[in-house]
Amino acid sequence: MKELIKKRISDLRVKMQETGLDAYIIFGTDPHLSEYLPEHWETRSYLSGFTGSAGIVIVSHEKAALWTDSRYFLQAEEQLTGTDIELVKLRIPGHPEPAEWLKMNLRQGANIGTDEWCISVSQFRTMQKNLNPSGIILKESGDLLNQIWFDRPDLPDFPVYEHELRFACTDRKEKIGTICDELEKSGANMQIITALDDLAWTFNLRGSDVECNPVFMAYACVSRDKTILFIAGQKLSPEMKNKLKTEGIQIKAYCDLISFLQELPNTARILVDPERTSQAILKNIPERCQIVEGMSVPCRLKAIKSEAEISNIRQAMRKDGVAMLEFLFWLEKSLGQIPVTEYTVVEKLIEFRAKQPESKGISFYPIVGYKEHGAIVHFHVSEENALTIEKDGFLLFDSGGQYSDGTTDITRTIALSELTTRQKTDFTLVLKGMISLTLAKFPVNTRGYHLDILARKDLWKHGLNYGHGTGHGVGYFLNVHEGPMSIRQELNDQPIEAGMVISNEPALYRLGEYGLRTENLIVCMKDESTEYGNFLSFDTLTLCPIDTKSIDKNLLNPEEIQWLNDYHIRVFEELAPLVKDELKVFLKELTTAI
Fold first, then answer.
1. Cα–Cα nearest to 486, from 506, 471, 498
2. Which of 118, 124, 72 is nearest to 99 (CA)?
3. Radius of gyration (Cα) for the chain, nearest Å?
4. Can you say whether residue 402 is alpha, beta or left, with left for phi > 0 and alpha for psi between -120 and 50 degrees?
5. Is the peptide bond before 366 cis (omega within 30 degrees of 0)?
6. Residue 571: enclosing H or E segment and its boundaries?
7. CB neighbours (10 Å) of residue 289?
8. Largest CA distance in the chain
9. Confidence at residue 583, expressed as pLDDT on a 0 to 100 scale
10. Is the distance from CB of 353 to CB of 363 less than 8 angstroms?
């Protein structure tokens, strides 16, 4: 494989030479700027062999480099070894950002190419701005990989299906009307929807074009005058086409978007989200049209779940809790009796979720790390690299499910033997962080980076930390990672608002020893109004016991102990009616008060 990677880079350099490029950038996404991709758009993986979900690759005629974040440092080091591709660690002192690397390695006036369909307007502008002082030119050179990837998979062609109204809660007509109202408030009269989850939410449709994400390849134009869905026609059944047309939604071919844009009238005032719109889309909007920049309207709307959606999510959490309980019971009975590997755990997590009503698969490939593998933040286990699990140390498992009534994401770390004092201390400090964020009460307009310290402060007191964010938004039977909000140290100006569903996942990783992460999903709720303003707080959605054997109770204060015991009472009360006999006894043991 390593030699094949070198051959691909060599082939790319030939194409760069033919087109007069000194370097080529792969931003590792698709024309919809997705995080998870159809195989056709897995360009970063094809060229570098790195399979993580985030990263940029730059190839010059002399060097090649890949940038990724702390979740993937260990994985990238392993996968890039022997490929002659340098790993550059994002946001780590001493490691240059991509633009700086280009300035260090290229002559003044050099030409850099990239596929303008796979770079956001914001990224394109930032890169241009950073390169301009050195005279380096960023050019829109198209998809050079298409010229060397001869067995490239076709675009996905899976059918689209309806997200039933009993689950979607709001019909298409109302959602489109609300989008148009919001557009007018911003001074626009049209939006081209490009993000696949925005699209799926708007039209109450789902698909299977991206593994684990129930989305489909399409674009849409939404305006008061017309709504157009640009999609490969064979993806819609005749009945679905007729239904959409009856509702006033026009159907055009996926490839018709560019000609539609180029024919827009001068009365068009188009909302463009620079973070979620490709440079190619912007380039094809005529100068006669007015551009209004702002956040994608459905991105903002879908982040705030309705009461009906939250009620459905709670039902999905009960089902997910039962699946997790069945897994924990299986693990308890199987360890030491039959061979169990990390890959076996992956299979069982998938199996138990699949049994639940309205299960639509998994929300991401399970991350399972036993002992030292737990310290690899997004470890991708296979049959070949899986460790055999024994009754010793920690096992970390991060997994989630897709259900018609919600998307789940949960991490638990459990002790498989007696622990050392340090292991218990580490586990308890991570738990304290999770509880601290759960108990937060804060004024309206608070940002995620204001709250992030709550999850880290007890770790910081001991000189400990983790390199990734604390919380990401979660979709509603949609992508497990959803914007625009987050809880992390980096600046994100989106306030945390009532109705937002967010992960809460502080962690600690000891390289070569173990990883610890405890994750629940929480929903932001209105709390109280006082003379000092309106306040918000969080309510926990996830229902699954936390391993009390790993806790040093002496490190918990009375409020934390009370929260943990109350949480376990709630887990028992919600899940006990759904299970029988041995499982109910097992659940009672796991939720015993400390």
1. 471
2. 124
3. 25
4. beta
5. no
6. helix 558-575
7. 16
8. 73
9. 97
10. no
Domain 304-589 is classified in which CATH homologous superfamily?
Creatinase/methionine aminopeptidase superfamily (3.90.230.10)
Q: What is the token pair recorded at 207?
A: 């698909």
User: For the segment 105-124, what is each residue's pLDDT rounded down to a tens digit?
Assistant: 999 999 999 999 999 999 99
Q: Which residue has the tokens 């055999």?
A: 388
- pLDDT tens-digit profile of 444-495? 999 999 999 999 999 999 999 999 999 999 999 999 999 999 999 999 999 9
Q: For domain 2-147, which CATH number applies: 3.30.420.40, 3.40.350.10, 3.90.25.10, 3.40.50.2300?
A: 3.40.350.10
- Give the three-class secondary structure for 184: helix
User: How far apart are the two ends of the chain, measured CA to CA in Å?
Assistant: 51
Query: Which DSSP state fits 386?
Result: P
Q: Which of 273, 194, 266, 206 is nearest to 236 (CA)?
A: 206
Per-residue three-class SS string for 413-442: EEECCCCCHHHHHHHHHHHHHHHHHHCCEE
Q: What type of residue sits at position 85?
A: I
In whole angstroms, give the CA distance from residue 553 to residue 546.
13
Phi-psi region of 226 (alpha: psi -120 to 50; beta: other; left: phi over 0): beta
Tell me the C-alpha distance between 68 and 85, whole Å: 13
Handedness of CA 315, 321, 324, 330 (dihedral sign): negative
Which residues have CB under 8 Å from 60's CB, separation 6+?
A: 22, 23, 102, 105, 106
- How far apart CA 110 and CA 424 sit, in angstroms, is 55
Distances (CA, A) of 216 to 3, 146, 229, 256, 358: 34, 22, 12, 17, 19
Displacement of CA 501 from its chain's centroid (Å): 13
Q: Which fold has domain 161-302?
A: Creatine Amidinohydrolase; Chain A, domain 1 (3.40.350)
Beta strands in 186-265 (DSSP E): 190-193, 205-206, 219-223, 227-230, 249-252
Q: How many CB atoms lie within 10 A of CB 35?
A: 17
Which residues lie closer than 8 Å to 178 by C-beta, 6 or more apart? Answer: 301
